[in-house]
Design goal:
two-stranded antiparallel ribbon, DNA-binding, alpha+beta, 43% helix, 6 helices, homodimer
DNA sequence: CCTCCATATGTTATTATATAACAGTCACAC
DNA sequence: GTGTGACTGTTATATAATAACATATGGAGG
């Protein structure tokens, strides 16, 4: 529920927790958490940033887990469908979910300096967007909210973020 | 300022108004509203929907205004930079701005049935996202807000939107 | 007038992202 | 043991975007 944000923290912890949550969710819903799917989620958690499908594929290939694009895209589809990862449309990239389990509409803060991405919560059906949708008779099913700007670290560096 | 939404209206009017607004803005800011840029905006306004760069390019090519991708992308960059058009990240497509002149953060309602897109207003720095950004020390410069769902027409059709 | 410079366009080639289509594998239900 | 469905492997291709360089064009200043 916390914005988590850009603060330093123990990646090993968040990786372990997220994997455990994914395991549990798959067990409860009879989902097939196969080696490729598991490994892709691990890669995302280890990277702890938005990663392109082909970047992930490079790692899979190096490990003999699949060499062609569909392998990566299928695993990513699975992870995204089940809420273990999200696609950052703005970057054409994927990132592990940092709000395990909670049903949520993610919102992302994308630093244009260092490309770090933080996940926050949004409530698209409230506020101005919800009002506009209601006025237009539009039924919101899903929303993409991505803010681009600068993270604390990059703001602190006096010079512009390149 | 209105959500405009999915209601039928006179396209000729909105095209004329948007072109006039673009003309005026370019004149005031000494911007070069060249034939290609003008024509691309016209194409977007006539299409009155999100269009891919290559779809636009097809029209340009048919009219002898440029045959290669960079021609379309450059014109689109110009239009987006100056607020005459927006990119819909979710669709990798572009759409003419329906809120001429007003400095704004656009939010889009995308129908997954008919692919129609309506432009509304968002205030990303307010609400939950703004609060999360503030808490994280993140400075929002720009935001992408895209809601996917169903427009009134597609909801009215009892059958699922295919 | 002419040259320099900035801006815009034209073109070739390439990179990046994503999916279609079909073949093989494997576990499990019947 | 065999059919069925879910997953993976592979080839090929579609779609989106940009790098790099060549070629106008149209003033600003000498």
């Amino acid at each position: 529920m916390d914005p988590l944000g850009f603060a330093p923290h123990d990646h090993r912890d968040c990786k372990r927790e997220a994997m455990a949550a994914a395991e549990a969710h798959c067990a409860r819903h009879r989902l097939n958490f196969t080696p490729v799917r598991r490994r892709v989620l691990e890669i995302l958690l280890e990277g702890h940033r938005a990663m392109g499908a082909y970047e992930i594929l490079d790692t899979l290939r190096a490990e003999g887990l699949g060499a062609q694009p569909p392998v990566a895209y299928r695993a990513l589809d699975f992870l995204v469908s089940n809420g273990f990862a999200h696609k950052i449309e703005r970057l054409n990239a994927f990132i592990a979910c940092t709000h395990p389990a909670a049903a949520h509409t993610p919102a992302f803060l994308i630093c244009r300096g260092c490309n770090a991405v933080a996940e926050a919560q949004a409530e698209p059906t409230r506020g101005m967007l919800g009002a506009a949708a209601k006025a237009a008779g539009f039924e919101i099913e899903q929303a993409v909210v991505e803010a681009v700007g600068r993270c604390p670290r990059c703001r602190a560096e006096a010079a512009p973020c390149r």
